[in-house]
Specification:
- The radius of gyration is 22 Å and the shape is globular.
- It has three domains: 47 residues, Single alpha-helices involved in coiled-coils or other helix-helix interfaces, CATH 1.20.5; 213 residues, Rossmann fold (3-Layer(aba) Sandwich); 54 residues, Helix Hairpins.
- The protein is of the alpha/beta class and 328 residues long.
- The two termini are 37 Å apart.
- Strands 3-2-4-1-5-6-7 form a seven-stranded parallel β-sheet, sandwiched between helices.
- Guanosine-5'-diphosphate binds next to α4.
- The site of guanosine-5'-diphosphate (GDP) has 15 residues, from α4.
Amino acid sequence: MKAVWQQLHEGICQGQRRAIAKGITLLESSHPDDARQAAQLLAALENQPQARLRVAISGPPGVGKSTLIEALGLRAIAEGLRVGVLTVDPSSRVSGGSILGDKTRMPRLSLHPAAFIRPSPAGTILGGVARRTRETIRLLEAAGFDLLLVETVGVGQSETEVDGMVDLFVLLLLPNGGDELQGIKRGIMELAEIIVINKADQQWQDLAANTAAQVSQAIRLLQRKHTAWEPQVLLCSALHHQGIDRLLEHLLAYGQTMQQAGVLQQKRQAQAALWMWERVYEGLRLQLHADTLVGQLAPQLEAQVAQGALGPIEAAEQLLHCFANARK
Ligand code: GDP
């Protein structure tokens, strides 16, 4: 009998949707048996090809991210690409997952055989969303998806984390004459290789052009991420499928430019090293919590710290010492 991970591995490499979905569920599981199977599955997928391009799509709620992903995804499929979509949306976790939500948000793309859409995992996994996203990206590219779009709500910490997993970061803004710029954190603007002013519909063309000019001026003052690529500001109307061709062209041009400059490979290698450390930290955390001696000592130390009888730093030292000694 083949192990679960072996069956999934075969199915995923053949691009079977059921195996892909089950594989991602396995990665998201926090059960120790599943974690072991997941680690074997990931190791087995290691030699599978990588995606042509991994793209983060970020922006405030309502700016048009899902509308744009739907339009861009369909456009890319028309060019012969296979498109994987992941959402890293903290708000969808509050409502307990968004499977139905994402299907209705991207109705045509979600039904297309050349696309695979995976919503955020339900239930908060503290500090674990990033790792699972990275691993889900890996699984999807092993299954043959060559353009990966990772959607995030542009409001905080998750953006920097997601930027550590993708090749480029696309920020969506509204055509409101730059007012919004005050509210967008400088750090997020600095992450963006491409800024899209969405909802640049016919009737808002002037406003959109004005916003684009202000954004272009603002980003000139920011620190450049790469020397090989100058951040671009584009206009789109996702709802009317306008500007989507240009966006796709720019995405692919970015991939090509960075590949030729050798930067893409470097970036991915650095991300892989980061991934290694994430796994090490998580592994250590699990071992720490599973350790019997630590498990006996911890409640006593916690109580002493809570009563003020022991300082937290001293208590932490004692726990770490206990953990290290148990390993000798
Ligand atoms: P998200 O929250 O960023 O994913 O935004 P959605 O894609 O759900 O879009 C929010 C609303 O804006 C929806 O009603 C869309 O139909 C609308 N929308 C998205 N793109 C455009 C656009 O280019 N022009 C106009 N007028 N509306 C748009």
